[in-house]
Hints:
Number of strands: 13
Order of helices and strands: EEEEHEHEHEEEHEHEHEHEHH
Distance between the termini: 25 Å
Structural class: alpha/beta
Low-confidence stretches: none
Strand order of the largest sheet: 10-9-11-8-12
Mean pLDDT: 96
Helix content: 25-40%
Amino acid sequence: MRIASEGARPPYNYFEGAELTGFEIELGRELCARMKRVCLFQAQDWDQMIPGLLNHQYDAIMAALDITDERRLKIAFSKPYVRMPAAFVVSAKGDIQDSSPEGLKDKDIGVVKDGPHQAFLEDRYKGSIVKPYASLEEAILDIAEGRIDAAIGDRDAIGDFLKTRKEAQCCRVLAEAPRDPAYFGEGVGIGLRKDDTALKDAFDKAIDELVSDGGFARIRAKYFDFEIY
């Protein structure tokens, strides 16, 4: 069985030399072993990812592919294997301890403009002042400068900033936001052709087994220092 990935989205998928590796590659190999299938991973440009699947160039996609209604018009998905949490980040020097709407009442919260996190804040944090930004990085930098009190974004993006930027000492993760698919989507799944129902069932079963016996947590811990399922 052939599985396509991009190789440009660490830690999900990336290259080490000429070889695809990363969380999804390791997860895919383990799922294939549970399914008793021999799997080969191949790199594919993002823009041709779904067309290549539909043209039978490969049998599945594992490439940080979000499950969306628009994509469901063309392809099917396995059950999600990543449900990326949203999280609040605040100043490391501040005294904010409560991420609830009451705890952040009258606080300025930065968010990427017109995205799902903005909709979440505007609906659930009506007592806060929502400050739209062009990027999450800009919002976090404004926390460092004392211009806003907090920001919200995907937990992995926040973690990347705090681990890689010299300004990261400014801030800390306060807490994860409540998981709500209505705002943040269903998650990341394996892309499949709609008529490959048996393959979808096999992937779903393997994902369930891997989660229940701890294999998923073992693989996840190598790439993410927080829960993603």
